[in-house]
Amino acid sequence: MSTTPVALVIGAGDATGGAVARRFAREGYVACVTRRSLDKLQPLLAQIRADGGQAYGFESDARQEDAVVALVAQIEADIGPIEVLVFNIGANAPSSILDETARKYFKIWEMACFGGFLNGREVARRMVTRTGRPQTIIFTGATASLRGAANFAAFAGAKHALRALAQSMARELGPRGIHVAHVVVDGAIDTAFIRDNFPERYALKDQDGILNPEHIADQYWMLHRQPRDAWTHELDLRPYLEKF
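Above: the chain sequence. Below: its structure as tokens.
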């Protein structure tokens, strides 16, 4: 096993998660990235390696306890110590409360909150045994972490719960040297989904009116590098045009 530290990104999609993985890889971390489809990770892995970084991809369902336990154990045994965990699963699926099904409501909670608990717990169990280097757990939140909009009952409930999890973990693990942070991403992100489905919003890109994933990743790196006498627990990021 290498002693090079690992940044584990759960939900390394084409926007924020991928940008975070690239950012930490540029700083010398081994990027371990997950999605439910390994094929979808190949472009990200190729880019990190082409830029001179180290990267490993894993097909993993963050909702399955056995899979999460095995993933963390494998990385710690074969690749290196996980010094950074970024939980970045969104699960944004709007629906009227009149039409919402119990199955979908529960699935959204599993993806956006329960997966955060499973991954956070497994990584924290390793982190508490180590000292001497910065160790960070970051949960990606959303506008729904703070307020529930119409047609987003399931998503808001899950994101509220993830925020509460982050707060509880921060209070328990902070005194043990582990920085736990929650990032509220309040606004549209520069993604193909926004481009294709919300063209008027995407048109604001030229005015810096939507979030650049690379700039979000810079803030995640900043959180990890903060001195422990001035840790940020909750950071909210939004374009200057965004109302709040």
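The first strand starts at residue 6 and ends at 10.
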